[in-house]
TrEMBL record:
Keyword Zinc attributed: no
Sequence ranges assigned to domain GST C-terminal in this UniProt record: 85-207
InterPro entries reported for this sequence: Glutathione-S-Trfase_C-like (IPR010987), Glutathione-S-Trfase_C_sf (IPR036282), Glutathione_S-Trfase (IPR040079), Glutathione_S-Trfase_N (IPR004045), GST_C (IPR004046), Thioredoxin-like_sf (IPR036249)
Record-linked SUPFAM superfamilies: GST C-terminal domain-like, Thioredoxin-like
Protein name as annotated: Glutathione S-transferase family protein
Pfam families membership: GST_C, GST_N_2
Lineage: Bacteria, Pseudomonadati, Pseudomonadota, Gammaproteobacteria, Pseudomonadales
GO molecular function: transferase activity
GST N-terminal domain boundaries: 1-80
Keywords from the UniProt entry: Transferase
């Protein structure tokens, strides 16, 4: 299996963590986003959305990080990251969808405005965009904070794809100034994720 990825991409990292936990070996193909390699015609044949990660498996192509995570889990009999029981699986799906719809939009904006923009030499953060994103992230993070009040992991089944997907972007919480560092339950849970070997072995490295 081949994974087109960028090592600093949090969407790529959630897939790498999943593969590590499942003991799936991936042939890694770096895509340098800062050089615009995601816009190359050959890459657009794999993913017309200009985004990483992209998985190739026996001539079949799959994009969208959470879909890749689910696919990898389904390849491994007996794995526990993605329960086979309907309610357990629905619970994980719920939080994966929540991550994409409620959490990541604001996270992506803050990461761009407070971090990537300066790295790319594209000017100062837009205060209007930052304020809008902070409101969205705060609302979503407060939901997660309350949910984690009496839980070790996000889902009742234990460590799951939901934990890996939601934790991945929090690697940038300080640099991108996410309004989450004051939330005790979220930070306690995030420390647990950071203690996982899958987290430690997928730390971003510059291209």
């Amino acid at each position: 299996m081949r994974l087109h990825y960028h090592p600093a991409s949090t969407c790529s990292r959630r897939v790498l963590m999943t593969a590590h936990d499942l003991e799936i070996e991936l042939d890694l193909v770096p895509v340098n986003l800062f050089k615009g390699e995601q816009n190359a015609p050959e890459f657009l044949q794999l993913n017309p959305n200009h985004r990483v990660p992209v998985l190739e498996h026996d001539g079949w192509v799959l994009w969208e990080s959470c879909a890749i995570m689910q696919y990898l889990a389904d390849l491994v009999p007996g794995q526990t990251l993605y329960p086979g029981e309907p309610r357990g699986r629905a619970d994980v799906n719920r939080w994966l969808f929540w991550c994409g719809q409620s959490f990541m939009p604001g996270i992506g904006i803050l990461n761009w405005e407070n971090s990537i923009k300066s790295l790319a030499g594209m000017g100062a953060p837009d205060p209007v965009e930052v304020a809008r994103a902070e409101q969205g992230v705060t609302e979503a993070a407060n939901i997660l904070e309350a949910h984690l009040g009496h839980r070790q992991w996000i889902c009742d089944s234990g460590l799951s794809l939901a934990d890996l997907a939601i934790a991945a972007p929090l690697a940038d919480q300080h640099r991108a100034k996410f309004p989450v560092t004051h939330l005790p339950n979220l930070q306690r849970w995030f420390m647990q994720v950071q203690a996982l070997d899958a987290w430690k072995q997928t730390a971003a490295q510059a291209l």
